[in-house]
């Protein structure tokens, strides 16, 4: 099995340490799991307690055993697990949302609760219908088989919702899971895993279908990548951990970074566009990977669009306020060879309330304001960086084509998400082809791309880097073909 190279490990370690240092996220461990002697993986051991382990190897062995037990119960057993998980996520949305908010201290409580309530929209076993072919040569059946044990990485931005959505998709496919959560959300993950496992064990007698590492670290991530019982990796995180997973030697399904862009042309319903930008860009203080991060507006309607943003409840910053907020929100390092400086996001302001950002800007805003906005140029750090703050840069462009060109530059070819507001079908088609993003929303908020206000299904893991798109149970399966020659064709 391929070991992560030292440079990759170093970059991930630096990323984790930097995030913890700047966000002030508390990473105290969840209540202690049952302990045992040290094992071969070099950790302190730990036999696990309803899915919570201190040892990666023991978690993988327990998950393997659970997978084999689940296999005996068939699709009906998987469906029962999903029914339990969806029901518990909805029933516990408020206390679990509060728990996660208290641990991570980022985002909005009402939206953390809402993200759990809507996990009922994540697809389950109904997604895995077999495909059959019948002809003169006989019959062929293709079915979707599980990988076995999946190693999954969780982000601090949506710890329990991402865990829950992954469980539904992965168990529907017949897999068990070992989670290595972000250290900043580890207690929330452990709480949900214990509760889910207790209910599953009570109903069907299987423990450890879902497992998690109690005190996750870069070392536990490396062990998860190398463990021979882990057959597939599913990553929802930043560039460092995605790159590390893709170098692990295992197949990895990676939900990587994004910087979703919006273009508003002269034909758009500006009032509706403004409401949509606030709805998506302000959701959970802009922590969603699909959330609007920058808006390019054709100059002829720029002022009117800004007026509509204000009418819809957003607060505008002037140039001096924007300058002060930019100084607080980013640190700047000289580029290589003395070139242009590179902006790094101040993690302490990621997911912060608009009132907090306004204080840094020296601005006074009405109580309950959900989103700040300011006019910027196309090279501004708020445009070019995935800043995940409820502050929307608005860029005036001379024409639609220029807007799309600048949007493509700001999206950095992540191929994640893009949004257009227009009544011109030609413009919709042009931007869709130019952006080539996984999600493209027309005349709606970004969240419509996940079926919230639009048609479709929900998932909190959107595999843009590796191309699977919005994950479903099929994402976590192997296709198996069974062929019977010259028989059972009854026509």
Describe the structure.
With 491 residues, the protein is an alpha/beta fold. It folds into 2 domains: 6-256 and 471-480, Aldehyde Dehydrogenase, Chain A, domain 1, CATH 3.40.605; 261-457, Aldehyde Dehydrogenase, Chain A, domain 2. Helix content is 39%, strand content 19%. The chain is built from 15 helices and 20 strands. The strands form 5 sheets. Strands 11-14-15-10-9-16-17 form a 7-stranded parallel β-sheet, with helices on both faces. Strands 1-6-5-4-7-8 form a 6-stranded parallel β-sheet, sandwiched between helices. Helix 5 links the parallel strand 4 (149-154) and strand 5.
Defining key terms:
globular; alpha/beta; 20 strands; 7-stranded parallel beta sheet; 19% strand; Aldehyde Dehydrogenase, Chain A, domain 2; 491 residues; Aldehyde Dehydrogenase, Chain A, domain 1; 2 domains
Q: What is the alpha-carbon Rg in Å?
A: 23 Å
**Alpha plus pi helix count:** 15
Q: Major sheet: order of its strands?
A: 11-14-15-10-9-16-17
Fraction in beta strands: 15-25%
Terminal-residue CA separation: 50 Å
Report the count of strand segments: 20
> Which segments are poorly predicted (pLDDT under 50) over 5 or more consecutive residues?
6-38
Alpha-beta content class? alpha/beta
When the domains are counted, the total is: 2
Morphology call: globular
CATH superfamily of the largest domain: Aldehyde Dehydrogenase, Chain A, domain 1
Largest sheet: 7 strands, parallel
């Amino acid at each position: 099995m391929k070991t992560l190279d030292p440079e990759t490990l170093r970059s991930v370690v630096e990323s984790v340490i930097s995030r913890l240092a700047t966000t002030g996220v508390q990473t105290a461990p969840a209540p202690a799991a049952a302990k045992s002697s040290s094992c071969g993986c070099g950790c302190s051991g730990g036999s696990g307690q309803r899915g919570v382990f201190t040892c990666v190897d023991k978690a993988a062995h327990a998950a393997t055993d659970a997978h084999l037990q689940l296999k005996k119960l068939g699709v009906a057993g998987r469906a029962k697990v999903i029914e339990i998980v969806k029901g518990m996520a909805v029933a516990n949305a408020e206390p679990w949302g509060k728990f996660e908010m208290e641990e991570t201290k980022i985002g909005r409580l009402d939206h953390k609760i809402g993200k759990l309530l809507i996990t009922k929209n994540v697809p389950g076993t109904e997604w895995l219908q077999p495909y059959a072919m019948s002809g003169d040569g006989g019959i062929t059946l293709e079915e979707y088989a599980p990988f076995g044990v999946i190693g999954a990485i969780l982000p601090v931005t949506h710890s329990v919702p991402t865990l829950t959505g992954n469980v539904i998709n992965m168990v529907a496919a017949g897999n068990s899971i070992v989670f290595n959560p972000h250290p900043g959300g580890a207690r929330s993950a452990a709480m949900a895993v214990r509760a889910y496992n207790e209910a599953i064990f009570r109903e069907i007698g299987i423990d450890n279908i879902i497992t998690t590492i109690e005190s996750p670290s870069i070392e536990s991530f490396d062990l998860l990548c190398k463990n021979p019982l882990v057959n597939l990796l599913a990553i929802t995180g930043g560039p460092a951990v995605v790159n590390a997973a893709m170098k692990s030697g295992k197949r990895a399904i990676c939900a990587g970074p994004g910087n979703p862009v919006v273009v508003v042309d002269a034909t758009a319903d500006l009032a509706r566009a403004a409401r949509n930008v606030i709805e998506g860009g302000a959701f959970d203080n802009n922590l969603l990977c699909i959330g609007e991060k920058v808006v390019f507006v054709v100059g002829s309607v720029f002022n009117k669009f800004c007026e509509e943003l204000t009418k819809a409840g957003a607060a505008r910053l002037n140039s001096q306020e924007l300058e002060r907020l930019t100084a607080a929100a980013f640190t700047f390092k000289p580029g290589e060879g003395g070139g242009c400086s590179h902006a790094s996001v101040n993690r302490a302001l990621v997911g912060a309330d608009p009132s907090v950002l306004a204080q840094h800007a020296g601005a006074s805003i009405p109580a309950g304001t959900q989103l700040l906005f300011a006019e910027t140029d196309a090279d501004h750090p708020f445009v070019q960086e995935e800043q995940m703050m409820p502050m929307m840069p608005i860029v005036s462009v001379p024409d639609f084509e220029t807007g799309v060109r600048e949007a493509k530059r700001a999206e950095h070819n992540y191929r994640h998400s893009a949004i257009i507001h227009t009544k011109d079908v030609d413009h919709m088609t042009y931007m869709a082809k130019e952006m080539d993003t996984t999600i493209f929303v027309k005349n709606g908020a970004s969240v419509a791309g996940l079926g919230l206000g639009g048609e479709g299904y929900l998932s909190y893991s959107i595999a843009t880097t590796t191309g699977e798109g919005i994950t479903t149970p099929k994402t976590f399966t192997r296709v198996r073909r069974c062929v019977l020659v010259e028989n059972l064709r009854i026509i």
